Amino acid sequence: MINKIRRSRHFNKETFMRDFFHEPGNVPGTLVIDENAYYPEIILIDYNTDNYTKQEIASPEECIPFLDGNSVSWVDVRGLGNLDILQRVGQIFDLHPLVLEDVVNMAERPKTEEYEDQLLIIARMVVPKKNAFGFFSEQVSLVLGKTYLLTVQEEPEHDCFDAVRSRIEKSKGIIRKSGADYLTYALLDAIIDGFFPVLERYGEQIEDLEEEVITKPTQKTLQKIYKIKRELLQLRRAIWPQRDVISSLMRDSGENISDEVRIYLRDCYDHAVQVIDMVETYRELTSGLMDVYLSAVSNKMNEIMKILTVVSSIFIPLTFVAGIYGMNFNTEKSPYNMPELNWYWGYPLCLAVMAAIAGGLLFFFWRRGWLERSLTIKQD
Amino acid sequence: MINKIRRSRHFNKETFMRDFFHEPGNVPGTLVIDENAYYPEIILIDYNTDNYTKQEIASPEECIPFLDGNSVSWVDVRGLGNLDILQRVGQIFDLHPLVLEDVVNMAERPKTEEYEDQLLIIARMVVPKKNAFGFFSEQVSLVLGKTYLLTVQEEPEHDCFDAVRSRIEKSKGIIRKSGADYLTYALLDAIIDGFFPVLERYGEQIEDLEEEVITKPTQKTLQKIYKIKRELLQLRRAIWPQRDVISSLMRDSGENISDEVRIYLRDCYDHAVQVIDMVETYRELTSGLMDVYLSAVSNKMNEIMKILTVVSSIFIPLTFVAGIYGMNFNTEKSPYNMPELNWYWGYPLCLAVMAAIAGGLLFFFWRRGWLERSLTIKQD
Amino acid sequence: MINKIRRSRHFNKETFMRDFFHEPGNVPGTLVIDENAYYPEIILIDYNTDNYTKQEIASPEECIPFLDGNSVSWVDVRGLGNLDILQRVGQIFDLHPLVLEDVVNMAERPKTEEYEDQLLIIARMVVPKKNAFGFFSEQVSLVLGKTYLLTVQEEPEHDCFDAVRSRIEKSKGIIRKSGADYLTYALLDAIIDGFFPVLERYGEQIEDLEEEVITKPTQKTLQKIYKIKRELLQLRRAIWPQRDVISSLMRDSGENISDEVRIYLRDCYDHAVQVIDMVETYRELTSGLMDVYLSAVSNKMNEIMKILTVVSSIFIPLTFVAGIYGMNFNTEKSPYNMPELNWYWGYPLCLAVMAAIAGGLLFFFWRRGWLERSLTIKQD
Amino acid sequence: MINKIRRSRHFNKETFMRDFFHEPGNVPGTLVIDENAYYPEIILIDYNTDNYTKQEIASPEECIPFLDGNSVSWVDVRGLGNLDILQRVGQIFDLHPLVLEDVVNMAERPKTEEYEDQLLIIARMVVPKKNAFGFFSEQVSLVLGKTYLLTVQEEPEHDCFDAVRSRIEKSKGIIRKSGADYLTYALLDAIIDGFFPVLERYGEQIEDLEEEVITKPTQKTLQKIYKIKRELLQLRRAIWPQRDVISSLMRDSGENISDEVRIYLRDCYDHAVQVIDMVETYRELTSGLMDVYLSAVSNKMNEIMKILTVVSSIFIPLTFVAGIYGMNFNTEKSPYNMPELNWYWGYPLCLAVMAAIAGGLLFFFWRRGWLERSLTIKQD
Amino acid sequence: MINKIRRSRHFNKETFMRDFFHEPGNVPGTLVIDENAYYPEIILIDYNTDNYTKQEIASPEECIPFLDGNSVSWVDVRGLGNLDILQRVGQIFDLHPLVLEDVVNMAERPKTEEYEDQLLIIARMVVPKKNAFGFFSEQVSLVLGKTYLLTVQEEPEHDCFDAVRSRIEKSKGIIRKSGADYLTYALLDAIIDGFFPVLERYGEQIEDLEEEVITKPTQKTLQKIYKIKRELLQLRRAIWPQRDVISSLMRDSGENISDEVRIYLRDCYDHAVQVIDMVETYRELTSGLMDVYLSAVSNKMNEIMKILTVVSSIFIPLTFVAGIYGMNFNTEKSPYNMPELNWYWGYPLCLAVMAAIAGGLLFFFWRRGWLERSLTIKQD
């Protein structure tokens, strides 16, 4: 029942779209396991106002005792590399086959779907890379029940939930006093706010490029601009549906989410809109940069042409004059044959004529303002 | 009653729009048979939980016994080359003349229309070509009745329903336990998912072009970009109305589609949105590539101009100097006439001056950073 | 009461917008007769299931006997060149002054308006030119009453209703059994389907240009692209409001249009949407062509520059070398003055040096891949 | 209470936006009088079916006797240069302070606002300039009461109401039989129709530019295109809200406007939509022209480069050959030193070689098709 | 509880977006104090029809006596540099933690939120710089209660409320007779109207650039255009949500805002729409300018190339002719070896030939119209 996955070769390119292609004609609900995926590790955090437990559990069944009761249980599955474990998780939480498929098959579009007493949220999380530009992008699925929250991440590294975990552990804010819906909100908020540091980097890079594009436009500049453009497209594709998810949670999510949490979601929604605003602004700036680049390259060409034109226009006529007096007409045959060659002041006069021509042309080009810029050493 | 078909000469160009032009003023319901079309072959698959029959039938009437009863009958007509057979199919399934026209006349826009106890769905299927880029695009018409599904395809090759046929035959999933509406869903899902492998290829090609456009931009690159752009336009034209079709099936399709299947259609709808997302992203990337191409070509020109400028600017002045001492002023007539020619160190000094000029210019260009790039051998 | 018409000088240019400018401040309902317009000829077709009459009538009043009764009367007025006749037509059909103004004054925007027992439809018809690209565009006004349909065309030639006339005459389809509303539908359908042959030509032309723009981009190419762009704009301006007209007929047109005909209008609406789809696709292709053109021109420039650069870079240094040994330094004055001139192997050595320089440069350019393309004869 | 007006220096540039800037923090209702504005002149036209009076009145109070009664009074204030008169007008017509502010402060956005028994309409009128391209743009405020219409214009010249005045005077159409609401309609219709002659000029200018941009693209062409673009932006800014005004009058304007007049407004609305259509079409054409311009300039550059390349490529090698035989190698020292110089046929052979080179290159360029175009005299 | 603020390095660049990045995972309601922020100064203005008090207060608690009673109290906090004071302000006004966070954390998106008996408005104020282009942009938070208005600004300088303060002090208009909601309106109106002077400058700058871009397009021009584009993006980002804020205040703001003030808000809304109109128009003009710039640069290149082509095309052939007669063929060996050198009129004839060539080429270029423009001194 496990089909061979069809995955684009983009997989190992971290910042490009890791698009998941649905195998046409598959039975709906088919789980596709990627052989290179991480083996799932499961972290259980169980808490209420008074108690707090955190443990890594080996088999999914270990979390069953925690699910019923008056505490919030957060079961965090990280890694999608084992079919058996994922299916057992599905059974424990009584997931609809389509839900399990959405959770396991990455690269779904962010969305929310309501089931009888569960709420499925597919979100996309971005985490900036440590020492390079770009970011990791990862799908996070959240299944919210009455007293539990099941989250499924693609891999154990790179998430942006540490601050939330610490808030639970240290009982900061009202999180320990609230239910699983508040936890869902807190995670969604962390996901949305996780876009800001990524965007901040693009803002800085765009600012650097604004300088570079004018002073030193090279092929590299062009590649950088295009790369930013592509990655912003990717961010945009991630954040737009996420906004709709939050908006839909605020309005339609039934009894799974309390009114109190809805107020907090409004705040989260505002941040999502702000992220969208910034992505769109950066996209416009990037496309403006492309225009500027093109103009700057044309400008550069003008400068190059000016140098060529100045040098050629001055020396080609001079060379012609020199060429004339290099001709071998026989001055003895006729007084009209290059008498200048035999003049007393012939050579100095010839040089003077050349100097006059050069001076005239230099004046012409100087008046046009070509000399200052063109002939400065070290322009770019 | 059969009019001569007006078909654009695009017909044999597989990837361009095979637009069907309605003959102005025709009686509505006129069937237009293309002489080169395939002779229809009819495959009947009849199944329920317990039984499974698959047979190719020669005359449409053979399927009548299967239509009534408690099994699902899938009548798959492949080929539109015979008027008589198509009309008999129309009579057997009691099709409205306009439905029959839509089914037979290819190149309709995807749409869905509800008739008394039938549901007409016009869809468009894409199948990637085997050994070339591009894809085949084909219209599929589905007529859903209580216990049967009639599908009409343009030609017997290239469809993406094999996986569904195998699911029926091997009774995978719930398909054998479900009705004709589930079969409809399964086929639609296969059609939508059929866009993914096609898109995957474009994703790869765009990625290749991202490299090519910077390092080696040629006319071919330009043609490839334009071709992708054109084919994405075509995909877009196919998928957008298809999304609306599915959305409308989810909402409005009356009793023809059961609530259970509607849930599955939601999944199918998500995939259609994902296809649209990818098509639009690829279109934006393609149009970004065009900008990059233009910039890269300008950059290339700059490099060419730099070489010309460096070479000309260095040698033209030197040639001028050589030209001066090639003049024939009579040194005997006057001590001012080119005394340098008779100097002891005249020639070496002249060469030294030339070297100084060349060195100065080389320094000037080196400071501008032109030499490194321009004069490397093997740039592109 | 007849004002001088203000008409743009575009009138005689067939493919550009023949915009009609409303004289500011005119009494509403003012009829403006163009002196160059055709003298109206009136064709009456009267039919029911059993009878069929077609006659050209000289005075509008001749059609009065046909209007009451149990047959459908189609009064087709072609030409707007006579005020008196048009006013008499207005009286016979009891037209509101504003309706008559809309009918007579061409270049209205397609629209539909409902009056007490009449329905006014302003449509725009396009007819491809015979031996040239481009099309004629003409306003057709339809006034639908209970048992009659009045149509007013700008001129007697060029319409796309012949097939409908033949269907009436030969009693094809259900037209003879249906009312005036079905006739209205049939004409509208013919008008919409009339866009297809026009579009087909643009499709072909775009395909030709796709080749031309890369292999042989000239000023003419540019003009053609722009011309297509402009004419597509015109088609778009005609078809968009027409779609709204049909959509509004389907929904709002009261008792003038029967439910049965509404089903047919749905088909007509689909075709209008398809026309819009094609116009928009062609517009995108055209604007892509403009980008390709610009890029191809830049590419061409690169090729030109490469030739110049190759030729100049090779021969300018060589000429410099020749210039050196053309100098007249007195070899007798000093052993340092151009001793090469007196060497036994001087000349061959000099030629060898030149050959080495030329060879080196050729190798440099060959490695850059400039020679193959640039120096092939007959490139474009 | 009268603040110093902050007005952009664009004021005297007729075609650019005369933007009025609201002084931040002002008391709402503050009237700002421009010192250079015209002194208001007040024209009163009072009419009903039987009577007609037109007079210029010196003080606003003179119109009070006309306001009550069974005639329609049109009070037309032209000029905004006197605070006292405007305030007295405000008192007579019992205007809300905000209404008076909107009326007096120019450069409001077209809008309509309903007050208890008054209807305020802010419109924008354009009048083509006499002997130049471009147009005057002026705000017209209309205050419609039961039996009167107050209009306020910026200045006494340039309006497009003359035809309406003449219709009233000569009792053309139904204007004398209708109320103040019909007069309002007539003026709005004249304002909208006033856009047509302005647009007509742009249509003509665009058509001229279509030729110029290809055959003779200069800086001037560029400036003209940009100017048209800018002015179309201005027209667009004026007409879009005006359409909304009319649409809102048709739907929401309460009892101030009778049902009969609403039918006429529909016609006016159609014209507004047509104006928008044309503005948008012209904008698209203009932006197409910009693309064509850029391409044409690049094309021109190609032609220039071809000439340079042809001339250089032919003569530079020839000059090199001449340079070789200008070298001074001593032929007496060695038989290898330029023996050609002493050949009997040396010079003719040398010329023949040159001719062969030149011929070969000419053939090469001719095959590329560069010669015909490049070397024709009088190209542009 | 105070986290280290993550602030982009854009902070000190005044005109770029000072984006505030929400720390992912923070407890909602966390206050982030910027160490470089201004120490809050608090101005209290308390007024009713009869009384007026204005004082700077040192501790927030001093305003408590004013809050209850029949006067309007405007508490204006300027500066965000002290956590304690801000928290005490929060307690005094009983602010929800999320409200306090929004107020303190700058760079929120303009929005309005309704709480039980308070209305929160986040607005963005722009103030033009004194001696430079660009503007300061600052967040203003307004909390409207029954009898008080709390405003929080980022810093004590640069606001646009002076005119409102003076209206209160001097009792201009109805402000002293109205409630806190009118004060809110007055401040919002001042904020919106504050965009006009900023926009005015851009209008002027665009107009200057329209000239510069054609006559003297340099790198600087390009940078200016891009800068304007970027800053307009920023203005747009500020004004669009502000329009929605006002629109929402007009419709939904419950009992906090009286009907009378709603009428005034309509005026304010009109101004916001006008600002948007201007921003969008300026953006279109700016992007048109970029196109013009690119074209102008290309044009300039054409001029440069023309000069080069004219000079080269004239002198290169002449130099070739001179080169020919500089060859050293031995005229004594053969009568065919350069007999011209020994002709009586050899030299003058040679000069004549050169003059003829030069004349012919000059004529050729003059006919093409290249000479007038290219060779005028002082072109740009």
Automatic annotation (TrEMBL), chains A, B, C, D, E:
Mediates influx of magnesium ions. CDD domains: TmCorA-like_1 (cd12828). The chain crosses the membrane at residues 307-325, 345-366. Keywords: Cell membrane, Ion transport, Magnesium, Membrane, Transmembrane, Transmembrane helix, Transport. Its main location: membrane. The keyword Nucleotide-binding does not apply. This is Magnesium transport protein CorA. The lineage of its organism: Bacteria, Bacillati, Cyanobacteriota, Cyanophyceae, Nostocales. One of its GO terms (cellular component) is plasma membrane. It holds the Pfam family CorA. GO terms for molecular function: cobalt ion binding; cobalt ion transmembrane transporter activity; magnesium ion binding; magnesium ion transmembrane transporter activity. InterPro entries: CorA_cytoplasmic_dom, CorA_TM1_TM2, Mg/Co-transport_prot_CorA, MgTranspt_CorA/ZnTranspt_ZntB. Belongs to the CorA metal ion transporter (MIT) (TC 1.A.35) family. PANTHER family: CORA FAMILY METAL ION TRANSPORTER (EUROFUNG) (PTHR46494:SF1).
